[in-house]
Design goal:
CATH architecture of the largest domain: Alpha-Beta Complex
Number of helices: 16
Number of strands: 21
Protein name: Alcohol dehydrogenase
Organism: Camellia lanceoleosa
Bound molecules: zinc ion
Helix content: 25-40%
CATH class of the largest domain: Alpha Beta
CATH superfamily of the largest domain: Medium-chain alcohol dehydrogenases, catalytic domain
């Protein structure tokens, strides 16, 4: 669907509700277009029928059902021949009408069945993704099937797609930053229902283990990130297949598919009014960066901060830092990021290659002994050591955000000097308990996501998103799943 068509449909959908159906506060509404069969059920559920029905399929049978499902004393159906279910749904919500959301879930009713949809499959390391027709099996115990509306590309997807020096788990469906709507739920899922808006998260929260019960930790024993697992925990099988051959999952999310199956513990239920094309980017790096500052580094007003490494994690630290009006130093080997960094409020920029002394000495000279806080976002051992050495002795705090490379060697003698070294994972956020509140920060305009979203592409052009990221052109490229 093109943007233009989307707008026309929205107007039609709005008109169908406000000009024709005219629901009053508290009216119950059923929207067709998801299969008319469930209407008999609705009539049952609503004590004789709904107040208004809107018909969006164009099928005669559905039109008759639409007429018949309204309450006999209030019969007033409107006919409307284009599929605009979600738009009308939004409109009716805006009008504070009571909408039978669960009934819609029943009407869709692919629950328990295999769904065929498009997914971008990585067949081999480093080869462009191919858009394929895949079968997505129904969710099993403690699993949820989610219709992905928007996804965005993160460096970690590119890293595992390149698969340099890693276990080769292919064919695989990558993707871990996304916004979607629950399509159906498996056995034992009680806190999510069809229609709920969710952000999948690559690490989970079972709410039962010692880590989940601890206020300090988000390192769930059961659902902590596992990049080597390409199957679901419940039965060690994949829910994706092509002609019976399994396609592997990625970090429990696999959002480069129009439908995916995710463990309920890896889904944050969010405000349904939050625009999914914006908040989809909160599933990984931006929350990590934001959390690293607000939950871990906790700078005070006027604090000086050094950030190692550009990219969404580094940039996401900016909102708090700018508010603090302190010195924000950026350390990056590339020289052309200067412009981007300035836009994000960086006051100083250091390219280590432009100096003939170690970067921590450069920073020490700039700041009379070191910054108050440093944040390391590259994962390189050298940068980690520099991040530790560039904070002021006596009170400085260095926060490691990136996972250290395996060969990382700690120079322990440098750990004496009353500096503090901290590390964080996903900004210390618990996915289910905390991420909904980060979405609220966006809704309250405390966290601006628009400037991170530099590109948007349709799903069929997903390889372009990889190109933008690898060439350093994008911060975030949002991928629209339906075109
Ligand atoms: Zn847990
Ligand atoms: Zn990520």
């Amino acid at each position: 669907m093109s943007n233009t068509a989307g707008r026309v449909i929205r107007r039609k959908g709005f008109g169908a509700t406000v000009n024709v159906a005219k629901p009053t506060k508290g009216s119950t509404v059923a929207v067709f277009g998801l299969g008319a069969v469930g209407l008999v059920l609705i009539a049952e559920m609503t004590n004789g029928g709904v107040d208004r029905s809107i018909e969006c399929t164009g099928s005669t049978e559905a039109m008759i059902s639409a007429f018949e499902c309204v309450h006999d004393s209030r019969a007033f159906p409107s006919s409307h021949t284009n599929n605009c279910t979600q738009k009308v749904l939004n409109t009716t919500k805006a009008l504070k009408s009571q909408f039978i959301f669960r009934a819609q879930g029943k009407m869709t009713n692919k629950a328990g069945q295999v769904i065929r949809c498009k997914a971008a499959v990585a067949w081999e390391a480093g080869k462009p993704l191919e858009i394929e027709d895949v079968e997505v099996a129904p969710p099993q115990k403690f699993e949820v099937r989610v219709k992905i509306h928007y996804t965005s590309l993160c460096h970690t997807d590119v890293y595992f797609w390149e698969a340099k020096g890693q276990n080769l788990i292919f064919p695989r469906i990558l993707g871990h930053e996304a916004g979607g709507i629950v399509e159906s739920v498996g056995e034992g899922v009680t806190d999510l229902a069809p229609g709920d808006h969710v952000l999948p998260v690559f690490t989970g929260e079972c709410k039962k283990c010692a880590h989940c019960k601890s206020k300090e930790s988000n390192l769930c024993d059961l659902l902590r990130i596992n990049t080597d697992r390409g199957v679901m925990i419940h039965d060690q099988k994949s829910r994706f297949s092509i002609k019976g051959e399994p396609i592997f999952h990625f970090v429990g999310t696999s959002t480069f598919s129009q439908y995916t199956v995710v463990h309920v513990g890896c889904l944050a239920k969010i405000n349904p009014d939050a625009p999914l094309d914006k908040v989809c980017v909160l599933g990984c790096e931006i929350s990590t960066g934001f959390g690293a500052i607000v939950n871990v580094a906790k700078p005070k007003k006027g604090s000086t901060v050094a950030v190692f490494g550009l990219g969404a994690v580094g940039l996401a630290k900016e909102p708090e830092c700018v508010v603090l009006q302190g010195l924000l130093v950026w350390i990056q080997i590339l020289s052309d990021v200067n412009k981007v960094a300035k836009k994000f409020g960086v006051t100083e920029f250091v390219n280590p290659e432009g100096h003939n002394k170690p970067v921590h000495e450069v920073i020490s000279d700039m700041t009379e002994g070191g910054v108050d806080i440093s944040v390391e976002c590259t994962g390189s051992t050298d940068a980690m050591i520099s991040a530790f050495e560039c904070v002021h002795d006596g009170w400085g705090v260095a926060v490691l955000v990136e996972v250290p490379h395996e060969d990382a060697v700690s120079n322990t003698y440098k750990l004496r000097s009353e500096r503090t070294l901290k590390s964080t994972f996903f900004g210390n956020y618990k996915p289910r308990s905390d991420i909904p509140s980060v979405v609220e920060k966006y809704m309250n305009k405390e966290l601006k996501l628009e400037k991170f979203i530099t590109h948007q592409v349709p799903f069929s052009k997903i390889n372009k998103a990889f190109k933008y990221m690898r060439e350093g052109e994008s911060i975030r490229c949002v991928i629209k799943m339906e075109e």
